[in-house]
């Protein structure tokens, strides 16, 4: 079932029983009971106000870093792709970014404006909201190193403006006020050479493409790096590169990536995650922690 309404040049979209395999970068996942894409911030606020207090909510950006099980998600998915995605230079060294803006686009926009310090975002396959939620990082830099303030929205549709001091931020982890979601932020950058920064973005993109299985469906890095080591090194040293369950395979190009060879189900991916954890822990004593968010019900 599909319902659409036009608001301010964008469409509100509400779907029922929408397959999440259409919206995740692994291309797997069962249906969401409701799938909502807001037209704008006011539309999002009104929608949240209308939801029952106990309704499960899943916030969705580009669908990376997410595994939805084959039984689907028995709640409401709020999809931000193409929504709340504005990018605006506020001052010579400050950028305002909507939570739905793709991180790679933020990196390019900052470079064109001659702002330095955001190039690493080109290596993160998601939206700014997702990067804020998990303190995403790449090439030695992390999202919250650049955050001045954030805008969030709660279940009642109320928008808040918060500072980094109100959050506990760690490696790939952000402890935030309960049931608030990121819809924007301001980033502190440095004025610099626009051409040099554009070249830096391109260099990092080439580095990512050379080391990661970009042409195959994956969700980005599967596991967090343990302290003082790398998940990919541990997986490769365990002899697991190329190991496959169903249609899910450990990439031969980068051992911390699980790829969908074309026929994978979410159960294959989750089974492979568990197998990696078991084998690596047995051989090294290290229990790898997933970086991907796993939601939903088994088939």
Sum this structure up briefly.
This protein is of the alpha+beta class. It contains 6 helices and 21 strands. It is globular and about 50 Å long.
Write up what this structure looks like:
- The chain is of the alpha+beta class and 299 residues long.
- Helices cover 24% and strands 31% of the residues.
- The strands form 7 sheets. Strands 1-2-3-6-4 form a 5-stranded mixed β-sheet, with no helix packed on it.
- Helix 2 packs antiparallel against helix 4.
The largest β sheet comes out as: 5 strands, mixed
Molecular shape: globular
Strand order of the largest sheet: 1-2-3-6-4
Unreliable stretches (pLDDT < 50, length at least 5) are 5-9
Number of strands: 21
- Compressed to H and E, one letter per element, the order equals EEEHEEEEEHEHEEEEEEEEHHEEEHE
Percent helix range: 10-25%
SS element count, helices: 6
Query: DSSP strand (E) fraction?
Result: 25-35%
Q: Compute the separation of the termini in Å.
A: 22 Å
Descriptive labels:
299 residues, five-stranded mixed sheet, 6 helices, five-stranded antiparallel sheet, 21 strands, alpha+beta
């Amino acid at each position: 079932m599909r319902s659409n309404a036009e608001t301010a040049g964008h469409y509100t979209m509400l779907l029922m029983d929408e397959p999440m395999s259409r919206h995740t970068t692994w291309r797997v996942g069962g249906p969401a009971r409701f799938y909502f894409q807001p037209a704008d911030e006011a539309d999002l606020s009104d929608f949240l106000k209308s939801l029952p207090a106990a309704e499960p909510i899943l916030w969705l950006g580009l669908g990376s870093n997410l595994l939805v099980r084959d039984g689907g998600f028995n709640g409401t998915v709020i999809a931000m792709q193409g929504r709340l995605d504005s990018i605006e230079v506020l001052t010579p060294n400050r950028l305002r970014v909507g939570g739905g803006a793709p991180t790679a686009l933020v990196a390019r926009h900052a470079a064109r404006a001659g702002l330095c310090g955001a190039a690493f975002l080109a290596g993160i396959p998601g939206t700014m909201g997702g990067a804020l939620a998990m303190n995403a990082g790449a090439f030695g830099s992390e999202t919250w190193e650049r955050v001045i303030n954030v805008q969030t929205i709660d279940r009642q549709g109320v928008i808040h403006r918060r500072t980094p001091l109100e959050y506990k931020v760690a490696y790939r982890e952000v402890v935030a006020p309960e049931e608030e979601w990121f819809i924007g932020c301001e980033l502190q950058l440095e004025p610099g050479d626009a051409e040099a920064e554009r070249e830096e973005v391109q260099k990092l993109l080439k580095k990512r493409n050379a080391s990661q299985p970009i042409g195959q469906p994956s969700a980005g890095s599967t596991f967090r790096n343990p302290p003082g080591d790398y998940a990919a090194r541990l997986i490769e040293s365990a002899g697991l590169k190329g190991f496959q369950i169903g249609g899910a395979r450990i990439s031969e190009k980068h051992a911390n990536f699980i790829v969908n060879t074309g026929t994978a189900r979410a159960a294959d991916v989750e089974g492979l995650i568990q197998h990696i954890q078991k084998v690596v822990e047995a051989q090294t004593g290290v229990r790898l922690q997933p970086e991907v968010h796993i939601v939903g019900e088994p088939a």
